[in-house]
Amino acid sequence: MTETPRSNLVREIYLAGARGQTPPLPTDLTALGEAARAVLTPAAYGYAAGDAGTGATGRANREAFKRWLLLPRMLRGTARRDLSVPLLGQRLPVPVLLAPVAAQTVVHADGELASAQGARDVGVPFVLSTGSSYSMEDVAAAAEPGSDAPADGAPMPRWFQLYWPADRAVAESLVRRAEASGYTALVLTIDAPTFGYRPADLDHGYLPFLNGAGIANFTSDPAFRAGLPVGADSRSVAAHWAQVFANPVLNWDHLPWLRELTSLPILLKGILHPDDARRALDLGADGVVVSNHGGRQLDGAVAALDALPAVRAAVGRSVPVLFDSGVRTGSDLVKALALGADVVLYGRPFLYGLGLGGRDGVAHVLRCLLAEVDLTLALTGCASVGDLTREVLALPGVLPVSGPLGGTGAAAPSLHPETTNEVSLI
Ligand SMILES: Cc1cc2nc3c(=O)[nH]c(=O)nc-3n(C[C@H](O)[C@H](O)[C@H](O)COP(=O)(O)O)c2cc1C
């Protein structure tokens, strides 16, 4: 447990307010997108915020959180809360990591260097995208506690997200470099064999990678460089990247090769179907990430939160199940944990914080998130993340009546005819 409760942020803000200071960025984590829109170019904002197609899956992700409500319990004396969680043989200080997000220099020149440092400032681990604008070695160095780190700045776990390149030599080289530079797990993203149909990017004719953002792990890679023509200019580098970056023929038969290649834990990101989760484990994965890529890939896909309970049930209690897509607030995060996630990946809000304030913006967003998680546990009556079960959740509608009601024995009517009283309290 950290020495200082995360919820102390609220006290600090009020005390600063009494001295006439207010927070530099919104504390409403759902307001960050609009704030970022005001400072980013339309193309940069479109890249960060854009969904696939009509945006139906992006909206479904948010709607799914609204369908679940918290049912707090009182007088449990939860004066301090333990936010730490066990994961892959370690204890993470908080149940959240930064999600892998490519090409972060689109929103701020310091990109992944700043987000790694902002995360470290707050004690949050991160997952670095293959599509980073700085090399994985440079980001690893930036993430090390240095002279500017807080006194208790212990090294945070950092993971590497792999987009499996079409060239196997490049794939192997990326994995070896991740091992050598201290990344402690691989997140293999499997829901992006190709980019989704993203009108926000298409309308601007904008793909950051073709402008040189998000390709540093390739341009710094010896195996990638070996495939470049002598004297290659930026155009031919981009053309080669476009050939190598994604692997549309990737299938389950490829996984044993990766499993053999590395002893790092492997988590498969982009799982929605319980059978895919089981298959991933059968082929040697150590865990799964339930995600629909924040609605950026397949428009019309199910909300990730709606897929979470079935995936958890399919793999059992002991397998790491991570979750992302649509998490904005501390309350959202708690709901995802109560529905079976061990840890949540936090996506767009930190990217907006990066765009608004660089490293400090990322730190601000994460501090707010963790303060709200801490307060949500307190107000729900939970002393630790481990206390979060479905018992803290209810679906909309009148709660079931456990005893006779008004002498008739009749149950209270449900507000929602499709929801019986028996299932409205989970
Ligand atoms: C701008 C942007 C870039 C992303 N790049 C990657 C990536 O390189 N690799 C990856 O696995 N997921 C990527 N994602 C998906 C995130 O890891 C995560 O699944 C998603 O942001 C969750 O949705 P949310 O941010 O709406 O909560 C990206 C998301 C955004 C918004």
TrEMBL record:
Its cofactor is FMN. PROSITE patterns: FMN_HYDROXY_ACID_DH_1, FMN_HYDROXY_ACID_DH_2. It comes from the Bacteria. Residues 21-398 form the FMN hydroxy acid dehydrogenase domain. Keywords: Oxidoreductase, Plasmid. Belongs to the FMN-dependent alpha-hydroxy acid dehydrogenase family. This is Alpha-hydroxy-acid oxidizing protein.
